[in-house]
Design brief:
Elements lengths: L2 E10 L10 E4 L21 H8 L4 H17 L4 E9 L5 H16 L3 E5 L10
Parallel strand pairs: 1-3, 1-4, 2-3
Helix pairs in contact: 2-3
Protein name: RapZ C-terminal domain-containing protein
Pfam families: PapZ_C
Organism: Kitasatospora putterlickiae
Length: about 130
């Protein structure tokens, strides 16, 4: 195994620059934003309705799989090193946090324990 540690960071682009990472997933433009639903706007990825909305969005599960495959490719490399994957959306409360949770769980099962960091999950809703 060449990945010595894995860190998956969720973040919101509207709260600042993306964290430094080996792989950054930008979920802003291609995937449905739960923020537009008033019933979900003030909720976060800690809430089942948000997770359900994100995970039933076409293409999301395939994106998680693709990111996991990239992580496995890093793991197959000849040099041991840490791996950081950043997952971003507009505010960091819905899409990014949900995808980061699922990805970290998958990587923990397939490669090594993944540390999950939600940079912006607990920040206020960004009014747009």
């Amino acid at each position: 195994m060449s990945v010595t540690e894995i860190c998956v960071i969720s973040f919101g682009y509207l709260h600042g620059a993306p964290p430094e990472a080996h792989l950054t997933l930008d979920l802003r433009r291609h995937f449905r934003d739960p923020h537009v639903d008033p019933a979900l706007r003030d909720l976060t990825a800690h809430d089942l309705p948000v997770r359900r909305a994100v995970l039933t969005t076409p293409g999301i599960r395939e994106s998680v799989l693709a990111a996991a495959l990239v992580a496995e490719a890093y793991d197959a490399g000849p040099t041991a090193a840490p791996l950081t994957i950043a997952v971003g959306c507009a505010g960091g409360r819905h899409r990014a946090a949900t995808v980061a949770m699922v990805l970290a769980s998958r990587l923990t099962k397939t490669i090594a324990p993944a540390r999950l960091v939600h940079r912006d999950l607990d920040k206020p809703v960004v009014e747009r």
